[in-house]
Protein backbone atom coordinates (compact mmCIF):
# COMPACT_ATOMS: atom_id res chain seq x y z
CA UNK A 1 0.00 0.00 0.00
CA UNK A 2 1.37 3.41 -1.00
CA UNK A 3 0.55 5.68 1.93
CA UNK A 4 0.21 9.40 1.29
CA UNK A 5 1.02 11.92 4.01
CA UNK A 6 -1.15 14.53 2.32
CA UNK A 7 -4.85 15.19 2.81
CA UNK A 8 -7.02 17.75 1.04
CA UNK A 9 -10.43 18.58 2.47
CA UNK A 10 -13.21 20.44 0.66
CA UNK A 11 -15.73 21.93 3.08
CA UNK A 12 -19.06 22.75 1.39
CA UNK A 13 -20.38 25.75 3.34
CA UNK A 14 -22.59 27.42 0.76
CA UNK A 15 -26.02 26.19 1.88
CA UNK A 16 -28.85 28.65 2.44
CA UNK A 17 -29.69 27.30 5.91
CA UNK A 18 -33.39 28.11 5.52
CA UNK A 19 -34.43 25.22 7.76
CA UNK A 20 -32.56 26.79 10.68
CA UNK A 21 -35.23 29.55 10.80
CA UNK A 22 -32.66 32.17 11.73
CA UNK A 23 -31.12 35.22 10.07
CA UNK A 24 -27.73 34.04 11.35
CA UNK A 25 -25.63 31.69 9.25
CA UNK A 26 -25.98 28.26 10.88
CA UNK A 27 -22.23 27.71 10.63
CA UNK A 28 -21.73 30.72 12.92
CA UNK A 29 -24.20 29.46 15.49
CA UNK A 30 -22.62 28.10 18.66
CA UNK A 31 -22.60 24.58 20.04
CA UNK A 32 -21.46 24.78 23.68
CA UNK A 33 -19.86 28.16 23.05
CA UNK A 34 -17.96 27.24 19.87
CA UNK A 35 -19.25 27.97 16.38
CA UNK A 36 -20.22 25.07 14.15
CA UNK A 37 -17.59 25.89 11.53
CA UNK A 38 -14.83 26.21 14.14
CA UNK A 39 -15.69 22.83 15.65
CA UNK A 40 -15.64 21.19 12.23
CA UNK A 41 -12.29 22.53 11.08
CA UNK A 42 -10.67 22.14 14.51
CA UNK A 43 -11.50 18.42 14.42
CA UNK A 44 -9.45 18.07 11.25
CA UNK A 45 -6.68 20.27 12.65
CA UNK A 46 -6.46 18.03 15.72
CA UNK A 47 -6.20 14.96 13.49
CA UNK A 48 -3.47 16.64 11.42
CA UNK A 49 -1.52 17.73 14.50
CA UNK A 50 -1.64 14.29 16.09
CA UNK A 51 -1.03 12.23 12.95
CA UNK A 52 1.49 14.42 11.16
CA UNK A 53 -0.67 14.40 8.03
CA UNK A 54 -0.17 17.54 5.92
CA UNK A 55 -3.63 19.12 5.64
CA UNK A 56 -4.87 21.69 3.11
CA UNK A 57 -8.48 22.84 3.04
CA UNK A 58 -10.79 24.53 0.56
CA UNK A 59 -13.82 26.35 1.95
CA UNK A 60 -16.72 26.65 -0.50
CA UNK A 61 -18.99 29.53 0.52
CA UNK A 62 -22.07 31.31 -0.75
CA UNK A 63 -21.61 33.64 -3.77
CA UNK A 64 -20.43 37.07 -2.74
CA UNK A 65 -19.27 35.91 0.71
CA UNK A 66 -15.60 35.11 0.13
CA UNK A 67 -14.34 38.38 1.66
CA UNK A 68 -16.48 37.88 4.77
CA UNK A 69 -15.20 34.35 5.28
CA UNK A 70 -11.63 35.42 4.61
CA UNK A 71 -11.97 37.98 7.40
CA UNK A 72 -13.53 35.38 9.69
CA UNK A 73 -10.84 32.70 9.35
CA UNK A 74 -7.72 34.88 9.14
CA UNK A 75 -7.20 35.07 12.93
CA UNK A 76 -8.15 31.46 13.67
CA UNK A 77 -5.64 28.86 14.84
CA UNK A 78 -6.49 26.86 11.73
CA UNK A 79 -6.09 29.80 9.29
CA UNK A 80 -2.93 28.39 7.72
CA UNK A 81 -4.79 25.24 6.70
CA UNK A 82 -7.42 27.16 4.69
CA UNK A 83 -5.61 27.19 1.37
CA UNK A 84 -8.48 28.61 -0.65
CA UNK A 85 -11.94 30.13 -0.20
CA UNK A 86 -14.13 29.88 -3.29
CA UNK A 87 -17.70 30.63 -4.24
CA UNK A 88 -20.20 27.81 -4.54
CA UNK A 89 -22.89 27.34 -7.17
CA UNK A 90 -26.64 26.82 -7.11
CA UNK A 91 -26.37 23.05 -6.50
CA UNK A 92 -24.16 20.84 -4.37
CA UNK A 93 -22.53 19.32 -7.45
CA UNK A 94 -21.61 22.75 -8.83
CA UNK A 95 -20.40 23.95 -5.42
CA UNK A 96 -18.16 20.97 -4.78
CA UNK A 97 -17.05 21.12 -8.41
CA UNK A 98 -15.74 24.63 -7.77
CA UNK A 99 -13.84 23.26 -4.79
CA UNK A 100 -12.36 20.47 -6.90
CA UNK A 101 -11.26 23.02 -9.50
CA UNK A 102 -9.51 25.03 -6.77
CA UNK A 103 -7.38 22.00 -5.87
CA UNK A 104 -5.61 22.15 -9.23
CA UNK A 105 -3.58 25.13 -8.01
CA UNK A 106 -1.86 22.85 -5.49
CA UNK A 107 -0.85 20.18 -8.03
CA UNK A 108 -2.09 17.18 -6.05
CA UNK A 109 -0.78 13.76 -7.01
CA UNK A 110 -3.24 11.35 -8.61
CA UNK A 111 -3.37 9.16 -5.48
CA UNK A 112 -3.58 11.98 -2.94
CA UNK A 113 -6.57 11.71 -0.62
CA UNK A 114 -9.37 14.24 -0.97
CA UNK A 115 -12.27 14.41 1.50
CA UNK A 116 -15.52 16.28 0.99
CA UNK A 117 -16.91 17.02 4.44
CA UNK A 118 -20.04 19.01 5.23
CA UNK A 119 -19.02 22.07 7.24
CA UNK A 120 -22.21 21.59 9.26
CA UNK A 121 -21.09 18.16 10.57
CA UNK A 122 -19.24 19.62 13.53
CA UNK A 123 -19.09 16.48 15.69
CA UNK A 124 -16.85 14.53 13.32
CA UNK A 125 -14.30 12.64 15.46
CA UNK A 126 -10.66 11.94 14.74
CA UNK A 127 -11.17 8.16 14.74
CA UNK A 128 -13.69 8.43 11.90
CA UNK A 129 -11.32 10.72 9.99
CA UNK A 130 -8.49 8.26 10.54
CA UNK A 131 -10.52 5.27 9.34
CA UNK A 132 -11.47 7.12 6.17
CA UNK A 133 -7.90 8.25 5.52
CA UNK A 134 -6.52 4.75 5.97
CA UNK A 135 -9.20 3.26 3.71
CA UNK A 136 -8.73 5.69 0.82
CA UNK A 137 -4.97 5.07 0.92
CA UNK A 138 -5.46 1.37 0.21
CA UNK A 139 -4.51 0.52 -3.36
CA UNK A 140 -7.83 -1.16 -4.18
CA UNK A 141 -9.99 1.69 -2.83
CA UNK A 142 -10.70 4.64 -5.11
CA UNK A 143 -13.81 5.97 -3.37
CA UNK A 144 -15.17 5.49 0.14
CA UNK A 145 -17.66 7.13 2.45
CA UNK A 146 -18.29 7.26 6.17
CA UNK A 147 -21.55 5.54 7.07
CA UNK A 148 -23.54 3.80 9.79
CA UNK A 149 -26.13 1.04 9.68
CA UNK A 150 -29.65 2.42 9.70
CA UNK A 151 -31.47 1.91 12.98
CA UNK A 152 -34.92 2.39 11.51
CA UNK A 153 -37.07 0.31 9.23
CA UNK A 154 -37.22 1.95 5.81
CA UNK A 155 -40.20 1.75 3.44
CA UNK A 156 -40.12 2.09 -0.34
CA UNK A 157 -43.23 4.03 -1.36
CA UNK A 158 -45.13 5.45 -4.27
CA UNK A 159 -47.66 8.26 -4.42
CA UNK A 160 -51.18 7.32 -5.40
CA UNK A 161 -53.52 10.10 -6.53
CA UNK A 162 -56.54 8.63 -4.73
CA UNK A 163 -54.91 6.92 -1.71
CA UNK A 164 -51.89 9.07 -0.93
CA UNK A 165 -48.43 7.70 -0.13
CA UNK A 166 -48.50 3.91 -0.25
CA UNK A 167 -45.88 1.34 0.79
CA UNK A 168 -44.44 -0.75 -2.03
CA UNK A 169 -41.82 -2.78 -0.15
CA UNK A 170 -39.69 -3.02 2.98
CA UNK A 171 -35.96 -3.42 2.25
CA UNK A 172 -33.81 -5.61 4.49
CA UNK A 173 -32.57 -3.20 7.16
CA UNK A 174 -29.29 -5.12 7.46
CA UNK A 175 -28.43 -4.02 3.93
CA UNK A 176 -29.11 -0.32 4.50
CA UNK A 177 -26.56 2.29 5.56
CA UNK A 178 -26.95 5.98 6.27
CA UNK A 179 -24.05 7.71 4.57
CA UNK A 180 -22.43 10.76 6.07
CA UNK A 181 -19.29 12.70 5.30
CA UNK A 182 -16.34 12.53 4.84
CA UNK A 183 -16.85 11.28 1.30
CA UNK A 184 -13.38 10.32 0.14
CA UNK A 185 -11.65 10.01 -3.22
CA UNK A 186 -8.27 9.56 -4.74
CA UNK A 187 -7.70 12.91 -6.45
CA UNK A 188 -7.63 11.67 -10.06
CA UNK A 189 -10.96 9.86 -9.60
CA UNK A 190 -12.58 12.90 -7.99
CA UNK A 191 -11.35 15.20 -10.74
CA UNK A 192 -12.63 12.83 -13.42
CA UNK A 193 -16.07 12.44 -11.84
CA UNK A 194 -16.65 16.17 -11.47
CA UNK A 195 -15.24 16.97 -14.90
CA UNK A 196 -17.53 14.43 -16.53
CA UNK A 197 -20.51 15.58 -14.46
CA UNK A 198 -19.95 19.15 -15.66
CA UNK A 199 -19.68 18.01 -19.27
CA UNK A 200 -22.81 15.86 -18.98
CA UNK A 201 -24.84 18.28 -16.87
CA UNK A 202 -25.27 15.50 -14.31
CA UNK A 203 -26.33 16.49 -10.79
CA UNK A 204 -26.28 14.48 -7.55
CA UNK A 205 -26.97 15.36 -3.93
CA UNK A 206 -24.28 12.94 -2.80
CA UNK A 207 -20.66 13.11 -3.98
CA UNK A 208 -20.11 9.36 -4.12
CA UNK A 209 -23.26 9.04 -6.24
CA UNK A 210 -21.22 10.63 -9.02
CA UNK A 211 -18.63 7.89 -8.66
CA UNK A 212 -21.38 5.26 -8.78
CA UNK A 213 -22.84 6.90 -11.87
CA UNK A 214 -19.49 6.69 -13.65
CA UNK A 215 -18.89 3.07 -12.74
CA UNK A 216 -16.67 3.25 -9.66
CA UNK A 217 -17.23 1.02 -6.64
CA UNK A 218 -17.84 2.85 -3.37
CA UNK A 219 -16.69 1.38 -0.06
CA UNK A 220 -18.47 2.06 3.24
CA UNK A 221 -16.18 2.95 6.15
CA UNK A 222 -17.44 2.80 9.73
CA UNK A 223 -18.69 6.21 10.81
CA UNK A 224 -20.28 7.48 14.01
CA UNK A 225 -23.91 8.01 14.97
CA UNK A 226 -22.86 11.26 16.63
CA UNK A 227 -21.67 12.70 13.30
CA UNK A 228 -24.92 14.60 12.76
CA UNK A 229 -25.47 17.48 10.36
CA UNK A 230 -26.63 20.77 11.87
CA UNK A 231 -29.71 21.59 9.80
CA UNK A 232 -32.57 22.60 12.13
CA UNK A 233 -32.72 24.39 15.54
CA UNK A 234 -33.27 21.03 17.23
CA UNK A 235 -29.91 19.82 15.96
CA UNK A 236 -28.08 22.39 18.09
CA UNK A 237 -29.66 20.96 21.25
CA UNK A 238 -28.94 17.39 20.10
CA UNK A 239 -25.29 18.25 19.39
CA UNK A 240 -24.88 19.83 22.81
CA UNK A 241 -26.39 16.76 24.48
CA UNK A 242 -24.06 14.48 22.51
CA UNK A 243 -21.07 16.55 23.57
CA UNK A 244 -22.07 16.27 27.23
CA UNK A 245 -22.21 12.50 26.89
CA UNK A 246 -18.78 12.42 25.22
CA UNK A 247 -17.11 14.20 28.13
Can you give me a brief rundown of this structure?
The protein has 247 residues and is α/β, with parallel strands linked by helices. It contains seven helices and eleven strands. The protein has a seven-stranded mixed sheet with strand order 5-4-1-6-10-7-11, with helices on both faces. A two-stranded antiparallel sheet has the order 2-3. It has a two-stranded antiparallel sheet with strand order 8-9.
Molecular structure report:
The protein is an alpha/beta fold and 247 residues long. The chain has one domain (6-246): Alpha-Beta Complex (Spore Coat Polysaccharide Biosynthesis Protein SpsA, Chain A), CATH 3.90.550.10. The protein contains seven helices and eleven strands. It has helices at residues 36-51, 66-73, 92-103, 126-136, 187-200, 207-213, 233-246, and strands at residues 6-13, 30-31, 34-35, 54-61, 82-87, 113-116, 143-149, 156-160, 164-169, 177-186, 219-222. Helix 3 crosses helix 5. The model has no long low-confidence stretch (mean pLDDT 94).
| Share of helical residues | 25-40%
Number of helices: 7
Task: Give the low-confidence spans.
Answer: none
CATH-scheme architecture:
Alpha-Beta Complex
**CATH first level: which class?**
Alpha Beta
User: Mean pLDDT score, rounded?
Assistant: 94
The rounded Rg comes to 18 Å
Total individual domains: 1
Q: Tell me the overall shape.
A: globular
Share in β-strands: 25-35%
What is the H-and-E element order? EEEHEHEHEHEEEEHHEH
Helix/strand/pairing category: alpha/beta
Biggest β-sheet, characterized? 7 strands, mixed
Amino acid sequence: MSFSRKLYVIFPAAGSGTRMKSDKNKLLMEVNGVTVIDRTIEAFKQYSDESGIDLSCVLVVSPGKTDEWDSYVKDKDYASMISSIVEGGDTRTKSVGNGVSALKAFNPANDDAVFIHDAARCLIDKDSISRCFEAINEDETNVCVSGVKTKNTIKMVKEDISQGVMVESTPNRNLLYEVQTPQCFKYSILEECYRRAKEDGYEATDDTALAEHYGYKVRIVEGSYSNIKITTPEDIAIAEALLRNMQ
